[in-house]
Amino acid sequence: MKPIDNPSDIDLTKHGVIEASAGTGKTYTLENLVVRILVEERVPIEKILLVTFTEKATGEMG
């Protein structure tokens, strides 16, 4: 796995992992990826599942 500095460089056709320290923008990156998937790939929102392990991130994604 190679580090990516810009979320727009992430290939939407492949699996990936967002791993970073607290406060580095993981939730922001995930939200942007979802928007790209909805708009660019035209995937229905009903087909997207987001999983988080913290209540804070859940609130940010809501």
SSE blueprint and pairings:
Layout (H helix, E strand, L loop, with lengths): L25 H15 L14 H7 L1
The succession of helices and strands, N to C, reads: HH
Domain count: the total is: 1
* Intertermini distance: 29 Å
- Catalogue the unreliable spans: none
Radius of gyration: 12 Å
Q: In oligomeric terms, what are we looking at?
A: single chain
Helix content: 25-40%
Mean pLDDT: 86
Instruction: Output the structural class.
Output: mainly alpha
How many strands, what sense, and barrel or not for the largest sheet? none
- Count of separate DSSP helical elements: 2
The outline comes out as globular
Q: How many runs of DSSP E, i.e. beta strands?
A: 0
Strand content: under 5%
What features would you describe in this structure?
This protein is an all-alpha fold. It has one domain (7-61). The protein is 35% helix and 0% strand. It has 2 helices and no strands. It has helices spanning 26-40, 55-61. It starts with 25 loop residues before the first helix and ends with a helix. 0% of the residues are buried. The mean pLDDT is 86.
Concise description?
This protein has 62 residues and is mainly α.
Name a few traits of the molecule.
62 residues, mainly alpha, 2 helices
